[in-house]
Design goal:
The chain is of the alpha+beta class and 179 residues long. 35% of the residues lie in helices and 31% in strands. The longest helix has 50 residues, at 41-90.
C-alpha cells in the first residue's frame, strides 16, 4: 500500500476509493475551512444596511397604500352624498324646484353614522352647498330651466378637499313621468 498525495494505491496497483466526505462535489480541506467560517464585519454592515433600506421601503409603501385607500373612501363618500342630493332634487316637481327655500342651500353629512335613525355625525364631516340658478343662455326655454350645482367640502389630514356636480332641471323634465 502506498500513499501518493490524497490517493491510496494497494499492492496490486488498484486505487482505493477515498472515504472523505464531499459537499456539493467540493472536498473540505482544513486550510480553507478557517477563511470561509464566518462573515467579515463589512459584509455584515452592508447586509444590515440593505435590510434596513428594504424594511423602510416596505413600511412606506404600506403607509402610502393605506393613505390612498382612505382618500379614495372619502372621495367615494363625497360622491355618494352629491348623488343623493341630486336624486332628491330630480324627484321634485317644478313648483318645488323654483320655490325659494324649498331646497336647502347648505347641509352637513358624515363619513359614517353609528345610528342612521339619529342625525349624529361621526368621523369626517362633509359640508355641502346647493346653488340653484337660472342658466345664462339665450334660448326661449331658458326661463323653464334651472342650473343646480352641489358642492361638498371636507378636511382630512389637515388637507381641504372638494367635489362638485352640476346639472340642469327643466319644467317639463322627468318629474312629469314619475308623478
Amino acid at each position: 500500500m502506498s500513499v501518493n498525495g490524497h490517493e491510496i494505491y494497494l499492492n496490486d496497483g488498484a486505487k482505493l476509493k477515498s472515504t472523505r466526505k464531499k459537499c456539493f462535489g467540493i472536498v473540505n480541506h482544513s486550510r480553507f475551512a478557517k477563511s470561509n467560517a464566518a462573515f467579515t464585519l463589512i459584509e455584515v454592515v452592508i447586509a444590515v444596511g440593505v435590510l434596513a433600506i428594504m424594511v423602510v421601503s416596505l413600511y412606506s409603501a404600506f403607509a402610502m397604500g393605506f393613505a390612498q385607500i382612505q382618500n379614495s373612501r372619502e372621495t367615494v363618500r363625497a360622491t355618494q352624498i352629491i348623488t343623493h342630493k341630486m336624486e332628491m332634487i330630480r324627484l321634485l316637481n317644478w313648483d318645488q324646484v323654483i320655490s325659494a327655500g324649498y331646497i336647502p342651500s347648505s347641509f352637513t353629512s358624515s363619513f359614517y353614522s353609528d345610528d342612521p335613525a339619529s342625525n349624529s355625525l361621526n368621523g369626517i364631516i362633509y359640508t355641502g352647498t346647493v346653488q340653484l340658478t337660472t342658466p345664462s343662455m339665450t334660448e326661449s326655454y331658458a326661463s323653464n330651466m334651472r342650473q343646480i350645482k352641489v358642492r361638498v367640502t371636507w378636511t382630512s389630514g389637515g388637507i381641504a378637499h372638494q367635489k362638485e356636480m352640476t346639472t340642469f332641471v327643466t319644467q317639463y323634465g322627468m318629474q312629469k313621468y314619475i308623478y
